[in-house]
């Protein structure tokens, strides 16, 4: 569920803390593609992590993990940027632009590097590594994010009903089920907080509702103005889903990091 960056963030954190093996990280990534490759997007990343630049023969995720460990990576952080909200990306530049296009990225703040995934062929995902100056992470509590999701569901439903663009859709349950079945289902490491998993699952279910609600036919939005009003009504729900995913993944990372600190 969620996205490739979420999978890499959680599993790499579990691996760095000693709660998972490197093979577990690689197996988890298979949910998003049969093959993954890694390239440096700039000279600093190529030198800093000993990675090939784009255009050369790419590195493997195993080489990336080895580089992260040898450089003393201590943390990972998921970011899910959208236009108008690029918090946590550390300003503009190529990394911010790539992360916005993808809608996701992984940050290793202690090292100053960020990774952005991009499907480049069927079954092949390329991870581009950037040197970044990431800002201080925004803390979003899991309870806060969960409550925000509940509030957004209520408010969006009320707004759509008021706009008369939330009419019943024949076969909507089948649409939702099909959307969820089509989503990858990566495993999560043993020790991932149960509440974080529940919030991720709920965000996934609400994401399915959001995806179906955004389909024009037969959603009831019969004019451009009505479509705009519908998009405005759904935007808070999309933001709440994104925030819930962000909070759940980064809470899992926090607990794995604390586990590593206690074992030292």
Jot down its keywords.
5-stranded mixed beta sheet; 264 residues; single chain; alpha+beta
Explain this structure to me?
This protein has 264 residues and is α+β, with helices and mostly antiparallel strands. It contains 9 helices and 5 strands. It has a 5-stranded mixed β-sheet, sandwiched between helices. The model has no long low-confidence stretch (mean pLDDT 86).
SSE blueprint and pairings:
Blueprint: H1 4-17, H2 22-29, E1 35-40, H3 43-48, H4 61-70, E2 77-79, H5 94-102, E3 105-108, E4 113-121, E5 124-131, H6 142-163, H7 172-182, H8 194-213, H9 224-263
Parallel strand pairs: 1-5
Antiparallel strand pairs: 2-3, 3-4, 4-5
Q: Mind describing the biggest β-sheet?
A: 5 strands, mixed
Distance between the termini: 32 Å
> What portion of residues is helical?
40-55%
Q: What pattern of helices and strands is seen along the backbone?
A: HHEHHEHEEEHHHH
Structural class: alpha+beta
Shape: globular
């Amino acid at each position: 569920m969620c996205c490739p960056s979420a999978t890499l963030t959680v599993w790499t954190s579990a691996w760095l803390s000693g709660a998972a093996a490197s093979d577990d990280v690689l197996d988890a990534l298979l949910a998003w593609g049969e093959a993954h490759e890694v390239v440096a997007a700039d000279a600093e990343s190529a030198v800093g992590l000993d990675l090939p630049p784009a255009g050369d023969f790419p590195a493997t995720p195993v080489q990336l993990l080895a580089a992260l460990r040898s450089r003393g990576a201590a943390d990972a952080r998921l970011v899910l940027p959208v236009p108008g909200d690029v918090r946590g990306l550390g300003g503009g530049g190529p990394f911010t632009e790539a992360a916005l296009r993808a809608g996701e990225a992984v940050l290793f703040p202690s090292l100053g590097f960020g990774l952005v995934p991009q499907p480049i062929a069927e079954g092949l995902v390329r991870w581009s590594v950037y040197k970044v100056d990431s800002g201080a992470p925004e803390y979003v509590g899991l309870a806060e994010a969960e409550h925000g999701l509940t509030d957004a569901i209520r408010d969006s439903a009320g707004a759509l009903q008021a706009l008369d663009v939330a009419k019943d859709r024949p076969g909507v349950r089948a649409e939702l089920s099909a959307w969820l079945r089509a989503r990858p289902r990566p495993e999560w490491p043993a020790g991932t907080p149960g509440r974080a998993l529940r919030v991720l699952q709920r965000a996934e279910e609400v994401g399915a509702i959001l995806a179906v609600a955004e389909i024009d036919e037969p959603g009831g939005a019969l004019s451009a103005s009505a479509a705009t009003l519908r998009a405005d009504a759904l935007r808070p729900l999309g933001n709440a889903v994104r925030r819930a995913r962000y909070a759940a993944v980064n809470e899992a990372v926090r607990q794995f990091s604390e586990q590593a600190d206690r074992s030292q």
